[in-house]
Every structure is written in C-alpha cells, then in structure tokens.
Write the structure tokens for this entry.
Amino acid sequence: MENLAAPQFSPDLVRLKYLATKIRMAIIKMVHQAQSGHLAGALGLADLYTALYFGALKHHPFDPNWSQRDYVLVSNGHTCPVWYATLAEAGYFPKVWLSRFRQLDSPLQGHPHFFPKIQDETEINQPVPGVENTSGPLGQGLSQAAGLALSLKRAQKPNVVFCFLSDGEHQEGQTWEAYMLAGQYHLTNLVPIIDHNNIQISGRIDQIMSVNPLPTKLRAFGWDVWQINGHDQLEFQKAIRLIKAGVRRPTAILAETISGRGVSFMENKFEWHGKIPSQAEAANAITELTTQLDNLNYDPHST
Ligand SMILES: Cc1ncc(C[n+]2csc(CCOP(=O)(O)OP(=O)(O)O)c2C)c(N)n1
Ligand SMILES: [Mg+2]
C-alpha cells in the first residue's frame, strides 16, 4: 500500500536522506553508549557528510590512500561521531568499531588521531581508514588543509582538499592566518566547509563573540563564498560540482545548519553541544529518527 506520509523526493535525495538519518541514529547510539561526546554539531552535519561521501567525493573506501582521491580534513574534531559513522557507513571500516567509540583501547577516540602507519603493537595506535588529520584543539585544521593544498598545487596534482570547520573556530586567529595564506597562494584546490550553526559550547556565537558577517570577512581575505542551506544535500553537491569545474578565486562553502538537526528537542539548543542524553532522551531520539526513516519509505536493497 502506498505510504501517504512519504514525502515526494527524487530517488537520489531519498537515498541521501535515508543515509543521513541512519548516521544520526548511529551518532546517538555512540555518544549514549560512551556516556561522553558531542551531539549537536555532529547531528547538524549529517546531511553534509552524507552528501559529500555519497556522491560528491572522489574516493575509494576500500583503498583509502588512493593517490587520486579528494582529501577530507576535519578541523572541528569534537564533531567526529558524524565522521566515524559516515566512514563506517561508506565501508572504510566495520560498523562494529562504532560501539567502541571513546574507549581507551579503541582507534575511534573522542577527537580524531591520524597515524600514517601502525606505530607499535597497541591497538590504539592503529590508523583509522579515512581519517587524514589529527584534530581537537580548535582552529588548527584549516592550516593543515592549506599546507596540504599548497603542496599538492606545487606538485601540480589535481586532488581537492575539503576541510570541515565550525563557526566557533572563526574566533581563533590561526583560522584567519590560514585563509590569508590560501588567498595569497590562490589555493582553489582547497574547499572549506563551514558549519554555521550559531552555537558554541556555552551559548549563541553572536552573543558571545560574533564571527559575522563571515562572507564580507572572507572576501576581504581573497575568498569567494557560497552560502547554502546545510540540510539541502543536492544544493551542496551542486556547489561542489561547480567548484570542482573551476573557480576564479578560492571558494568556501558557508553552510547554514541547525545544530541537533533531526531530534526535535535538541535542535538549535547550545546546551546539547556536549550534553549526554539520559536513557529516556536517547530512546526518544531514536524513536523520532525511526519515524523519519519509515516515512522515507526507502528500500536500501532496491538499488
Ligand atoms: C583551542 C580550543 N579551545 C577550546 C576548546 C573546547 N571546545 C570544544 S568545542 C567548543 C565549542 C566551539 O564552538 P563550535 O566549534 O562552533 O561548536 P559546535 O557548533 O559544534 O557546538 C569549545 C570551546 C577546544 N577544543 N579547542
Ligand atoms: Mg558552532
């Protein structure tokens, strides 16, 4: 029987929404199980991560170091539940790893660690397939990404470097040094993806120390800015396609997002930046997400 509640989306979009909802469920489970971690930013980024890894990115999950890949670096490391859940969903490593998030002997630490190769016998030093940089101290990731993009450009390599950043990180001076360098060296192979959710750890960004207007500031540093709805996955994929096709100046994607997206009682509330849900809250969140999944009426085995 036809599901009358099912929204009318294109088949591609239904698949992306299905994957993003599954990833949100994994995020809730990981943080609740670990009794530690960051939910709001991770849930808000699920649509962007899904759109990137399932359609826009040049990559091979089974060959993470493929020389022609696009690189993904993450500067706002506390949002890593969304990165780990997306990498697992894409096939970079087994999903069972997610259940050991933030455990002492787990490769999936609370902030991502990059190991180029196994350092010693201890499990914690295993590289996480797909993780290309270490993060946690905010404000550093764009410098890592700009250095990588500059070296790729000098070697005349075509790889593109994506870098996820939070809006809170734009309160850090080092972020602007990296924009300045990339503007000066015309790094059109570097694509910052800014999570503009207007929350940080203890309140609303515009009330604590506003970073706005970001487009005006970025343009002054030699950048073009594409402002998108961070939950419109097809708009995001289109922006990436156009940037990859060639741009006049380095171009950043400014994604307007809703923190906690997908769980009604977490949306737009800075308190959920790093709060751990109770048993009842986690169960309610999973119930809401399950309803969203059911309403999509998507059969993952149909494609
Ligand atoms: C250099 C540095 N200072 C402080 C922190 C602690 N901290 C972790 S997340 C965070 C909030 C920053 O805001 P944003 O990254 O926008 O958070 P979100 O939108 O994901 O809640 C802070 C202050 C940190 N990780 N690194
Ligand atoms: Mg923020």
